[in-house]
Specification:
By secondary structure, this protein is mainly beta. The chain has one helix at about 5-25, and strands spanning about 25-40, 55-65, 70-85, 90-110, 115-135, 140-160, 165-175, 180-185, 190-200, 205-215. This is Outer membrane beta-barrel protein.
């Protein structure tokens, strides 16, 4: 190898090393908001997110990049959706809230202005449901909650405004099945079913946009 070639290789290695060092050992925080798309699951007897409309979501996260191509992120937030069922003789009006605490591992590909990342992880998902039923001579107004370990898959696309700030989109699919005790109506609509303990699939997809700040 000639001296000129050796010099070129050394120069390229130095540039790559500087670029890697700038992205490694980095912490960041993010705040995002957007929509929540319930999973559409039917639990029978008018239970499940099949009967919920599109809602909204908000989350915050803090992450650490030990190397340029990977990060570990912890996050929490809130997602919610409502739905109403109207049938001859009765109606059901429900609002669901979810509060997750998540841990996610991500792989990262970084370009000049664009950062793409994706990965998966686990979380503790707390689900709350307000349940109102209008039934002949027996109205119901109750709330209950449950907690379960769930899992999620994520994909992010961030556009760098400068060395510190970025804006982007976050897509998250998640699933969790806490046991929640609620009153419902039998499938034929003839009677109330009280104290029904069921594993509610409280997952779905969130599509958020937000900002990220790197330290």
């Amino acid at each position: 190898m000639t001296k000129r070639s050796m010099l070129a290789v050394a120069l390229m290695a130095s540039v790559l090393a500087v670029g890697s060092a700038s992205a490694a050992d980095q912490t960041y925080v993010a705040a995002r908001g957007g929509i929540f798309l319930p999973n559409g699951r039917d639990g029978g007897d008018f239970k499940g997110f099949k009967y919920f409309d599109t809602g909204y979501s908000f989350d915050v996260a803090a992450g650490y990049r030990p190397v340029p191509y990977a990060a570990v992120e912890v996050g929490t937030g809130l997602y919610t959706a409502s739905g109403k069922i109207t049938q001859p003789g009765f109606s059901i009006d429900r609002t669901a809230y979810g509060v997750p605490i998540t841990l996610t591992a991500k792989g990262i590909i970084e370009f000049d202005k664009l950062i793409l990342s994706g990965g998966g992880g686990i979380g503790l998902y707390q689900g709350f449901i307000d349940n109102k039923i209008s039934f002949p001579s027996t109205p119901v107004d109750e709330s209950n909650h449950g907690t379960a370990v769930g899992y999620q898959a994520v994909f992010d696309a961030d556009f760098k405004l400068n060395e510190k700030w970025a804006v982007g989109a976050n897509f998250k699919w998640f699933s969790a099945r806490p046991e929640i005790e609620l009153t419902t109506v039998s499938q034929d609509g003839s009677r109330l079913v009280r104290n029904s303990k069921d594993k509610w699939e409280i997952g779905g997809t969130t599509v958020n946009i937000g900002v990220k700040y790197s330290f």
